[in-house]
Amino acid sequence: MSRLAVDGGTPVRTTPLPTVLDPAGRTFGAEERAAVLDVLDGAVLNSSAGGPWLGDLEATMARLHGVPHAVASSSGTAALHLAVAAIDPEPGDEIITTPLTDFGTIAAILAQNAVPVFADVDPLTGNLDPASVEAQLSERTRAILVVHLFGAAAPVTELRALADRAGVALIEDCAQAYLARPAPDAPPVGTYGAVGCFSLQQYKHVTAGDGGLCVTSDAATAERMRLFSDKAWPRAEGRFHRFLALNYRMTNLTAAVAAVQLRRLPDVVERRRRQAARLLTAVGDLPGAHLPDRPDLHAWWVLPLVVDEGHRRWAKALTAEGVPAHAGWLQSPVYRYPVFTERRTYGTSGFPLTSPPARRDWTYPVGLCPRAERLIDDTLVVLQWNENYADADVDDIAAALTKVAAGLTRTAA
């Protein structure tokens, strides 16, 4: 086996891989340009003033997920806030979620004056562990907010059953997992709970720069989310506002790009899956590391690699081979951010984490979710993934993984 590049050897790859930050790693084309010009030529950029693109986008999203309703918004965080607002928690009510997520998941809970309660995760997937979720249920639990991490479906069947037994709502954060499925022939994620939430941010499978989408099978939930996105203004009835709500409207420019991008989504996911299957076949069993299985179910937002230990060594070695890799994904579990450790919420009040309205004063110590903490601190390595990878790109990634696994295993021995 050749010497690792990090130790002075020759790297596997010397040219950059396509990424979502350059044209080679995106799927924009003539249709998006035409859609943007259609909006500009029509002069109506605000979707509340009319135009076809928002309806087109929402209808496509609903059809892709086999549900009757989709609601667009200005960002993925906004979509999550719509979902939390739709279940209408009382101040201090609790929503159980994961510490391994983007802060947008948590911001939606706090912004609606509910308390995030953190459950631990599976040590190989990073997805919520239903047993840990069950242990966090209380009389104040209002919902479970599950995140489908890195493109893998969380155990939503079990979580939906748990939510039903507890009489609480299930909300799905699907920002990283478009069209992922928990099992063959199962419905896609986003359709198991009261609301499924999606993001159109730059780094997602398809993008309009920013933007959000919610799907639901419940007409009343869809109506409340639609109202919440428009300051609770029932425009057909007059100029008044039914309840406290915000402006999370999507513009027509965003909707136009997103509508065309969403038509490309099935092909984007299929190409990511096809190349992931090629990679898994090429690398086989990696010593000291675990890759996702079932490429046909995974959405492959990124390529998560869980190593036995020493994730920084793996990330440094892979990056030196020309395959950029990041150790831990997050700097810390979200409950160790200053918003929680310093209670920086509304002024210096600590609201809603203090009692009242919470049932107790909430603190989030180190060690709260040890499996999530170990992933961040020692075992999780994240590599980028892209639908525009050529076979040669995938083969280079496979070669780098194989080389690094062998080299680090030899060093450890």
UniProtKB/TrEMBL annotation:
| GO terms of molecular function | pyridoxal phosphate binding; transaminase activity
For this UniProt record, give its keywords in alphabetical order, as a comma-separated list. Answer: Aminotransferase, Pyridoxal phosphate, Transferase
Keyword presence, DNA damage:
no
Q: Give the SUPFAM superfamilies listed for this entry.
A: PLP-dependent transferases (SSF53383)
Entry annotated with the keyword Transferase: yes
Query: Where does the record place the catalytic residues?
Result: 204
Coiled coil ranges (UniProt) are none
Q: Which residues carry this modification: N6-(pyridoxal phosphate)lysine?
A: 204
Q: Which cofactors, if any, are listed as required? A: pyridoxal 5'-phosphate
Q: Which GO terms describe its biological process?
A: polysaccharide biosynthetic process
What the entry lists under InterPro entries is as follows: DegT/StrS_aminotransferase, PyrdxlP-dep_Trfase, PyrdxlP-dep_Trfase_major, PyrdxlP-dep_Trfase_small
Enumerate the Pfam families for this protein.
DegT_DnrJ_EryC1
- UniProt similarity note: Belongs to the DegT/DnrJ/EryC1 family.
Name of the molecule in the record: Glutamine--scyllo-inositol aminotransferase
Record organism = Jiangella anatolica
